[in-house]
Structure formats: C-alpha cells, structure tokens
Amino acid sequence: MKNVYAQIQSLAIAACLAFGLQACSVNDILPDAEFNTLMVDADAAIHDNRWDVATSKLEQASRLQPNNLAVKLKQGQVNQQSGKLALAHNTYQQIIDAAATAKGKDLEIVQSARTQQAKLGFKPIDKATVLEPDSIAAAPVATGSDAQSSTEGRVQDAAPLPIEPIAQKDVVPQPVINSVNDEAVISERLEAWRLAWQQQRVSDYLAFYKADFTGGLRSHAAWRQQRADRIKTAKDLQIDISSLQMELQDEDKATVTFTQTYQAANHRDVGLKTLSLQRINDQWLIANEQFSKQ
C-alpha cells in the first residue's frame, strides 16, 4: 500500500509523455488519486488494528476534502474502536451538525453518525436549575381598638406593630460542569496536541501551552527554544497515548493522566504523564506537565 500513490504518479507521468504534454501531473490524470490512496491505506490500517496509522491517513485525507462526511464518519469509527470514546462522540456530533445541508448519501452518513453516537452511552446532563428564594409573605398587621373617644365618638385603629424585615440569603449559582462536552473537547485537544508533536509541527505544538509555561526552565522563551530544537531534530517520531483518565475540578480546570510512549530513531521512553489544564479564552491550555518514566 505504501507505494500505491508513487506507482499511480509514475503511470500518470508516462501517460503525459505518451500524449506529448509538456506540463502534466498526477492530478491532471487522476484528480483524486492522492485522496483515494490515503483512504485505501486507512482501510488497510483499520483492518490490521493500526489505529494511529489509520488516524494519520484519515487526517491527511480530511485536509484534502474537509467537507467529506464519509471521512469524518470513518474518523469517528476509528476513535470509537480504539477506545477514544469522547473524541468519537465529538466527531459524530460534527457530522450530525451538518444535517441541515446534507443531501443524498450524506443524509445516510448523518443517520449512521446518530446511530453510532447513541451506542457510546453518553447522556446529556440536565441543565442545573437554581431555585429562587420563596417570596416572603407579608406578616399580618396587628390592629387594635382604643377606647371610644368621648369627644369624637368613634373608634381609632391602633398603630401597626413594627415588623423586622426578614433577611433573605443570597442564592449563589454553582458553576455547571458539562462533563460530556468538556471531556470531548479536552480529548480532541489532547489528540491534536499529540499529532502536532508527532508530525513535528512545532508552532502548533507550542500553542497548546500557557504563555507563562516554563517546564522547569528559567523562562517560557528558554523552554520554547529547547522544545523546538528537540522536536525538529527527532527522527521517525511516534507518540502514542493510552489508558487515558480525566478529572474535571471545576468549569475551568482539569487534569488528564495517561501512559505516554515516545519512540524516535535513537530513543524510546514509556511513562505516566499528567497534564494540568486550564481553560483560558474558551481554550484548554496546558498549565503544568509531569512525566514519570516507567
């Protein structure tokens, strides 16, 4: 499978020469050749349970055809089969959100996404309701009668007794943690962080960290330089994540723990990594990072 696209490219070039075309590429002969090759490679990886390879191939295919719902459905299925259930839920939801403009086969894909999402077992969290304090009924006013005035010949009402106001305790609404949605978003961010690292996209990788993150170095700038140097020089880099656990402390803080496997041409590490996350401007960023080698 690895050489399929190269073979197609060679055939396309040969066809160009046969027809005497001066400027010609594989896309002129077979415009979807690269996309189709990626999908074939992804299917082969899925068949062999090589989830990371399948994820990478599908991500590349998605970049070529970002509106292709069939690719997204397969991404959701790969996430589901590889145990990344929250990420699968989020991927299926992206397909479902496209239902309004879906036509033909895309409608079938939307229905499949709904069916697969339902199998995940996530249940929507009831919206928290804050009870308003009961209205305080006015206390009855005590009245009385004075002796009939001999001069006016009528009854006078006694002055009402003073009533102390009843203090109402303020009801402070507690922050609502939408665990299903937050876990899906965090899982998606974590996968994007892993891929940025593995694919050595340094700028994208660094963007997942807070602006004051130092990693134990003297400054954020020093840490950025160190990470950039190490990532750029790594050969045959492969980052794997497994046994993911997640805890939401509140609506803006979370902790994720997982087994991280780092594999490069001349180095391999396996250990427990813990990331402390903080939501800033509606984005989950890494505030602290710890790694314990196993």
Q: Name the helix and strand elements from N-terminus to C-terminus, one letter apiece.
A: HHHHHHHHHHEEEE
> How big is the Rg?
32 Å
Strand order of the largest sheet: 1-2-3-4
List unreliable stretches of 5+ residues.
123-156, 168-177
Number of helices: 10
Helix/strand class: alpha+beta
The global form is globular
Provide structural commentary:
The chain has 294 residues and is α+β, with helices and mostly antiparallel strands. It folds into three domains: 1-66, no CATH class; 72-123, no CATH class; 194-293, Nuclear Transport Factor 2, Chain: A. The chain contains ten helices and four strands; from the N terminus they run H-H-H-H-H-H-H-H-H-H-E-E-E-E. It has helices at residues 4-18, 26-29, 33-47, 51-64, 69-81, 85-97, 105-119, 179-198, 202-206, 220-233, and strands spanning 238-250, 253-264, 267-280, 283-293. It has a four-stranded antiparallel beta sheet. It is globular. It starts with a helix and ends with a strand. Mean pLDDT is 78; it is low at 123-156 and 168-177.
